[in-house]
User: Fold this.
Amino acid sequence: MKNKDLLQVAQEYGCPTYVYDAEKIASQYKRLTAAFKDVENLKIKYAVKALSNISVLKYIYSLGGGLDTVSLQEIQLGLEAGVPANKIIFTPNGVAFSELEAAAELGVQINIDSLSMLEKFGSKYPETPVCVRINPHIMAGGNRKISVGHIDSKFGISIHQIPHVLRIVENTNMHINGIHMHTGSDILDVEVFLQAAEILFSTASKFKNLEFLDFGSGFKVPYHENDIETNIEELGKKLSKRFNAFCKNYGKSISLSFEPGKFLVSQSGYFLTKVNAIKQTTSTVFAQVDSGFNHLIRPMFYGAEHEIINISHPTKHKRFYSVVGYICETDTFASNKQIAEISEDDILAFKNAGAYCFSMASNYNSRFKPAEVLWYKNKALLIRKREIFKDLISNQISIDLE
Assistant:
């Protein structure tokens, strides 16, 4: 998207607003499938938690993708978007058994990551195929909060507990049709994926009726110009060769699955905010915008850096600013960053705002959630209305006090 396109969206729908470039989502999807073109049966299942708007889900399904879900509500969103149940995998953690039962009734692929749930499910639904999520005991990811495959992680069944899994399978006569793992997010080193792959292959060889192997995701995307990222093409070449060799040794061709979230939608997203005021203190120049960590929590929560550009005056001389929000707490998007000179009412665009941005938004400080727009075929399509006061109190109950 061009600056003029983003300004058009800001003028038409106001600020703050999230904008997603459909063309960028499509190009990322095509890049991933092209990297693994040597795999006969590749399945891409988009991680709904990254960005769950039903229009985005519908669009990714139109590209050929399925969905990776972590809650019943995400399953329902996928079905509402028109994605068939057999294109959806359910990978929850720590949920009640009733959620697994409900998912089974809906007909989605179920992925189980604890021995107790596996035994309980196998005893009640021995005819329903399930996938097993393993924990490979690999520390990987951009930071500890998004590293999920290490030995202290709550996710997955330890690779050292595979004999217990096999015992449960034998006792219940259940059907294991897939093996899954996800080591973390923002993984840069291709060798980490390949190391984890060997663990997955070794585990998979112990199960005789598999239909797919699921490698999760965790591909790192660039967050600023010249930033490093996962070399998908190198990974595709190396992992495809190793996966095809595994299939040959296994005795049949099975599917290779990935569950990208950030990789598909992060770079498609822009978060548009308007500058309320420029505040000069003794040490800092603050650009105060009409949003806060209620809309974009990643900088405060993860220390994530989002490039911020002044799309109203992109060619002005650059000055140093701290960009802050209007939340009544420390609420900093960026500290001491060079941005083209900012004036009141300028529109700032936060880049890489497609993944884990709106989906983690809240009504903190009783602020409304922003609008969402899909930029599709050079048109701005509203895919979520901006909240109004009625939305804020729709589920609240005012009681009579004597």
About this structure: The chain has two domains: 52-260, 266-388. Residues 232-250 form the longest helix (19 residues). The chain has a mean pLDDT of 93.
